[in-house]
Amino acid sequence: MKRTAATAFTALVLAAALSACSSDNSTHAAPKRANTTTPSAPSKAISDGEATAGTPPEPNVATKLGYIRALTGIDPDIVHGREDKAVDRGLNQCQTIHDFPKDKPKQTKMAEMRFTSPSHPEGFGKVKAAQIVEAVHVNLCPKFLRAGDAA
User: For the whole model, what pTM was predicted?
Assistant: First the structure.
């Protein structure tokens, strides 16, 4: 009798847990639509306070997709199937852009060190690193000043 009651109780707990999980997933189960905006469209999500602090917000889906497309356009191996890591590196690069707004060589050097892949463990070179800095700035932290911008 105790064994049957324990089994029934376990089944009840599992059913409740599964129904809680499945109801949560149904709200996020809608398929994602492809972004039709230009990959280099700047994010409007960054506030003036965040621009001052040097920490842009986590990008929304459209901004993230545009940023990933911009990086893939430079070299598909920059993202190499790790979109979240590419976004994290981009947000870190925003901090560099913020901290060294007039030092394009420093921004490029940091991007070259930061953006690596298994096929490019030493980075993608100065030309692509400069393009990465531009993609990061335009897509993730457009309000940050950079080399050549008016103050």
Answer: 0.64
β-partners of residue 120 are: 117
3-state secondary structure of 20: helix
Which residues neighbour 87 within 8 Å (Cβ) at sequence distance 6 or greater? 58, 59, 64, 67, 68, 140
Tokens of 67: 């940023």
Measured distance CA(139)–CA(133) in Å, rounded = 10
Q: Do 95 and 133 form a contact (C-beta atoms < 8 A)?
A: no
pLDDT of 29? 39
Burial (CB count within 10 angstroms: exposed 0-12, middle 13-18, buried 19+), residue 120: middle
Are 52 and 145 within 8 A, CB to CB? no
Is 150 exposed, middle or buried (CB count within 10 Å of its CB: 0-12, 13-18, 19+)? exposed
